[in-house]
Amino acid sequence: MKRVNTFILEGCPALYQLADNCARLYNELNFERRQAYMRYKRFEWYPKHLYEKYAPLIGSATAQQIINKNNEAWRSFLALKRLKAKGKLPEHIKKVSMPRYWKRNGRRELR
């Protein structure tokens, strides 16, 4: 029989605040890009104003990684749009849609 250690974890308000700010950055960046894409079919890849707004709250490395994660989602979307235009979209993909917000049940999803 193996020994098992059981731990009870308590929620830390600072971590919830950090996760909430991360979700806010992702959602705000995604909102700006969705609006710019629908209006102009182009957008800024590195939003310095959002980085400067959120870096003091969540840390510069975290802000950069969240921006990179959003860049990854948008690059994937644009690549799929190009494949669809060429008629080379994989069979298992039925619909190409813009990246979604980080939310679950109407509330931001804390990641």
Key descriptive features of the protein:
single chain, 111 residues, two-stranded antiparallel sheet, extended
How is the topology of this model organized?
Blueprint: H1 13-40, H2 48-58, H3 60-86, E1 103-104, E2 107-108
Antiparallel strand pairs: 1-2
Helix pairs in contact: 1-2, 1-3, 2-3
Explained architecture:
With 111 residues, the protein is mainly α. The protein has one domain (13-102). 59% of the residues lie in helices and 4% in strands. It is built from 3 helices and 2 strands, in the order αααββ. The protein has helices at 13-40, 48-58, 60-86; strands at residues 103-104, 107-108. It has a two-stranded antiparallel sheet. β1 and β2 form a beta hairpin. The longest helix is centred in the N-terminal third of the chain and has 28 residues, at 13-40. It is extended and about 55 Å long. The chain starts with 12 loop residues before the first helix and ends with a strand. The relative contact order is 0.16.
